[in-house]
Amino acid sequence: MKYEKNNRPRLPQEKKEISPEAKKRALLLAVNVITFTIIYFVAINLNVIVLPASLLGFPIFLAHVVTILYWVALAVFLIVYIAYNRAFSRKGITVEMLPDTWTAEQKAEFVEDGQRRLENSQWMLSVIIPLIVPIMLDAIYLFTWPIIENLFSLN
User: Fold this and answer.
1) CA-CA distances (angstroms) from residue 146 to 25, 63, 89, 141?
2) What is residue 1's predicted lDDT score, i.e. its pLDDT?
3) In this predicted structure, what is the pLDDT of residue 31?
4) What is the DSSP string of 98-120?
5) Do the Cβ atoms of 28 and 9 come closer than 8 Å?
6) pLDDT score at 56
7) Measured CA distances, 44 to 78, 84, 133 (Å)
8) Average pLDDT along the chain, 155 residues, taken 10 residues at a time
9) Nearest Cα to Cα of residue 113 among 95, 90, 96, 97
10) pLDDT score of 93
């Protein structure tokens, strides 16, 4: 059975202009991702002992401290972001969805508050995403590299 090619004419798509604010946020995000990732992997690969083994019975390396700091910072920022946005319970709510017992002013304030919270918390994403990337890359490296290494080993 042969499938026919769709020969419908395509409508020209309008190209949306990217605002300078969006370009600035994207550049900040890219710089943060690169910076956080470099700091993470440089610190992980340094064999610097922060606490000697005589104190705890085992040495604490800088890699341990940095990994814990990244995880804690990620957890704190995620909790604050979700709590500030009230678990996104106001996202997508329109005035028509709100109770009839509320005044028009209350409804407008409720909807505006949800939108304002999303806009005001966007800066947190420029910290959350760069914290996620090196942790994710490290996990991919830790769990997939041995498999890839074994596939191409000569043993």
Assistant:
1) 37, 20, 43, 8
2) 54
3) 97
4) S-TTS-HHHHHHHHHHHHHHHHH
5) no
6) 77
7) 23, 32, 15
8) 65 81 94 97 88 80 92 97 89 86 90 89 94 95 88 77
9) 90
10) 84
CA–CA separation, 73 and 2 (whole Å): 56
Strand runs labelled E in the chain: 49-51, 60-61
**DSSP designation for 131:** H
- Provide the token pair at 140: 């991919």
CA distance 61 to 46: 8
Task: State the Cα–Cα distance between residues 110 and 101, nearest whole angstrom.
Answer: 14
User: What does DSSP assign to residue 51?
Assistant: E
Paired with 49 in beta bridges are 61
Orientation of helix 122-151 relative to helix 104-120, angle to 10°: 50
Q: In terms of residues, how long is the chain?
A: 155
Among 42, 90, 91, which Cα is nearest to 70's? 42
Tokens matching residue 100: 């009839």
Cβ-based neighbours of 48, under 8 Å, separated by 6 or more: 61, 62
